[in-house]
Amino acid sequence: MSGPNRSSSASSKNGLPPQELLDDLCSRFVLNVPKEDLQSFERILFLVEYAHWFYEDNSVENNPSLKSFNLKEFTSLLFNSCDVLKPYVAHIDDIFKDFTSYKVRVPVTGAIILDETYERCILVKGWKGSSWSFPRGKKSKDEEDHACAIREVMEETGFDVTKLLNKDEYIEAIFGQQRVRLYIIAGVKDDTAFAPLTKKEISEIAWHRLDELQPASDEVISRGITGLKLYMVAPFLASLNSWISAHQPPMAPRSDLPMKGICVWRAKNGSTGSSAVIMENQSTKPESDTHPLDTGPGNIFRNFKFDTASILQAMDSAFSA
């Protein structure tokens, strides 16, 4: 992907964002940050990822003529368009590979939300694909585990677990080189309203019966009895069942609830941002699994340091032009 200067009119024809938009994204998300965030390509790529989310969620939605990009494409576009990043374009494949390896080592925290009978839990389905998981996400720099869990659950479900979270009640699992910690949030009313606060991240939220999340067989641990894709759920179920056995639920089992999962929120027509609550039986069907591969941490450009003086000089030139 080349990065010559483009006019707004040329960009409107081929869908590429105009140079002034890319300059704004680079200045806002990459350059105008604390110095410590510019000390490695891993941190810089996280900033580029924020710029990508903003571009997709705001620029593209407000201007349908703009082209949508995946993260790697957007990274190449921004590196080719931003004067400070251009010197590293030749190494962008290695930089992005290093970043991908780094991301799978960042700790993840979230929550297992149980209803008042401890028979059901909240699962979320990603925007792309059909895998289900407990609401969770990667920790930010210097963020405490429980604070990350509160933030991620709020972003993915719109539910504040602050008052219900016990820092000592959690289950952990290791996926490759990544630690995942899920806090147990028990006794949530089943009529609680859920709706994600972020765009294009969650497509569906539903209460699912724990007995239907059990593996269909020892050989197929990533699928529940109903065929749900549960790669990020199954490893926590044995420990969760042990916790439930040791704790008395605040409400007895209810026979009036449907046997199938209950959908409490679904994105309308593939778009997000709706706060509408949808109640319906959750239908499921088997689909093929695709497990993310952990290629291990890279070490290219690990000792990279940004030339801050050059950055400031470039910014001064840009603003004085």
Automatic annotation (TrEMBL):
Keywords: Cytoplasm, Hydrolase, Manganese, Metal-binding, RNA-binding
One GO location term (cellular component): cytoplasm
Molecular-function GO term, any one: 5'-(N(7)-methylguanosine 5'-triphospho)-[mRNA] hydrolase activity
Signal peptide region: none
Family matches, as Gene3D superfamilies: Dcp2, box A domain, Nucleoside Triphosphate Pyrophosphohydrolase
Localization terms from the record: Cytoplasm
Cofactor(s) required, per the database record: Mn(2+)
Nudix hydrolase domain segment(s): 104-232
SMART domains: DCP2 (SM01125)
GO biological process: deadenylation-dependent decapping of nuclear-transcribed mRNA; nuclear-transcribed mRNA catabolic process, nonsense-mediated decay
PANTHER family: M7GPPPN-MRNA HYDROLASE
Assigned protein family: Belongs to the Nudix hydrolase family. DCP2 subfamily.
Protein's recorded name: mRNA-decapping enzyme subunit 2
Native organism: Quillaja saponaria
